[in-house]
Design brief:
Blueprint: H1 10-40, H2 49-78, H3 82-109, H4 115-119, H5 124-135
Helix pairs in contact: 1-2, 1-5, 2-3
């Protein structure tokens, strides 16, 4: 496979799928939590299409961020020069954080997203990977 992403290594593909599953489960649990809280305090916690849409979009952004990080690590591992590899990692990190920051602004400003439901999924991959690591010990 060639094009924008070039050749994706099997490890990057496998881990990205794993993170996608973790994130999908986390978003489903988050939506269930919103629904449960909505039943208890409906005036404070909403549950409508904006929660679901925010969760799906935020989850997509989180998985895309992880996938792009994997591609960067793949490219950096193949680089011969350590200095340019370090600069590529720093640039990738900065770009991915700016992309997530842009999403946070959109999630807060756009009325089609419930802001918390759009932001919470950004944390799901990190915590999911840590929980799986603890469970596998």
């Amino acid at each position: 496979m060639s094009g924008i992403f070039g050749e994706i290594q099997p490890a990057v593909r496998k881990e990205s799928i794993r993170v996608g599953v973790i994130t999908a489960v986390g978003v489903a649990l988050m939506c269930a939590g919103f629904f449960g809280l909505h039943l208890i305090v409906p005036d404070i916690v909403p549950f409508d299409y904006t929660v679901i849409l925010g969760g799906i979009a935020g989850g997509f952004i989180a998985v895309l961020n992880f996938f792009l990080m994997g591609l960067t690590v793949q490219k950096v591992a193949a680089a011969a020069d350590e200095g340019s590899a370090r600069n590529k990692m720093k640039a990738s990190y900065t770009q991915r954080m700016l992309f997530q920051l842009l999403w946070v602004v959109v999630a807060i400003v756009a009325p089609c997203f419930q802001f918390a439901a759009g932001i919470i999924p950004l944390f799901i991959p990190s915590y999911g990977i840590k929980l799986l690591g603890i469970a596998n010990r």
